[in-house]
Write a structure and sequence with these properties.
10 helices, TIM Barrel, single chain, 263 residues, 10 strands, 44% helix, alpha/beta, eight-stranded parallel barrel
């Protein structure tokens, strides 16, 4: 297993600068969270590849800048937009493969979406098959305010999609949606590929690890027992800390406390 930090944790720092800052700190794994269309260009991919090679950091996943548009582009009744969205995702699948990233994260549709669960899974399955053709796995992330916040919806995805149902677990999104982390883990079953971690407690629902009361050791041991081979990435909002050194210190302390579990 790997422990790392998502570039999203340094937003609104420009993505490539965030990537290099994380790499400079000796962090062993990261996720690139896209924040602008220009970051889809080849020069940005080349820049990310150079940072990866220079520092030896592992890019585990990509997070497209499409979350706000996914209900409209992928899960609407207008199939022509879905055709266009497939082209957009093909770019991310190709980029992920070139950077050695195994996973692409998807937020999905809003709870008031027009498509049935069956139609949702059909669209997701089409994209997941395309991802596989690039050697990449498409992951449904649990996100508050989206259909994926509901554990019953995640169970239904598992039932309908089988081997194409893969998930990214996000701790803060569990809490914000009013579910325990255990409930969401149970609904995702054995198909969790990627994990976004954060702490929570009296100080808020999205804190740096160590600033709340969450049992990270228990989480890591549970996933080790499941023979999980993926990464746990700290993904917090910028208001979770005052200075960037706090983010990196949280990572270092968490890794030291659980050193025997991480590569």
């Amino acid at each position: 297993m790997k422990l790392g930090i998502s570039t999203a944790s340094l937003y609104p720092l420009e993505t490539e600068i965030a990537l290099e800052e994380i790499a400079k700190q000796g962090v062993t794994a990261t996720e690139i969270f896209y924040n602008s269309d220009i970051e889809r260009k080849n020069y940005f991919t080349d820049l990310a590849a150079n940072i990866k090679e220079s520092y030896g950091i592992n890019i585990t996943a990509l997070h497209p800048m499409l979350s706000f548009a996914e209900p409209y582009m992928i899960f609407s009744e207008y199939t022509r937009r879905f055709d266009q969205a497939q082209d957009d995702f093909n770019h991310y699948f190709e980029t992920a493969a070139s950077l050695g990233a195994k996973f692409i994260n998807l937020h999905g549709d809003r709870p008031n979406g027009k498509l049935s669960v069956e139609e949702y899974c059909e669209r997701f399955g089409i994209l997941a098959e395309k991802a596989k053709s690039f050697g990449v796995t498409l992951c449904q992330e649990n996100v508050n305010g989206y259909r994926s916040a509901d554990p019953e919806f995640l169970r239904e995805m598992n039932n309908q999609l089988g081997h194409l149902a893969n998930f990214t677990l996000d701790i803060k999104q569990c809490i914000r949606a009013g579910y325990t982390v255990t409930e969401i883990i149970d609904s995702m079953g054995e198909n969790i590929c990627h994990v976004h971690i954060s702490d929570h407690g009296v100080g808020g629902d999205c804190l740096l690890p160590g600033n709340g009361g969450f049992n990270f050791r228990g989480l890591f041991e549970l996933f080790a027992q499941k023979n999980y081979k993926g990464a746990f990435l700290i993904e917090v909002y910028r208001n979770a800390y005052k200075e960037p050194y706090e983010l990196f210190e949280s990572y270092k302390i968490l890794k030291k406390q659980n050193n025997n579990l991480f590569e």
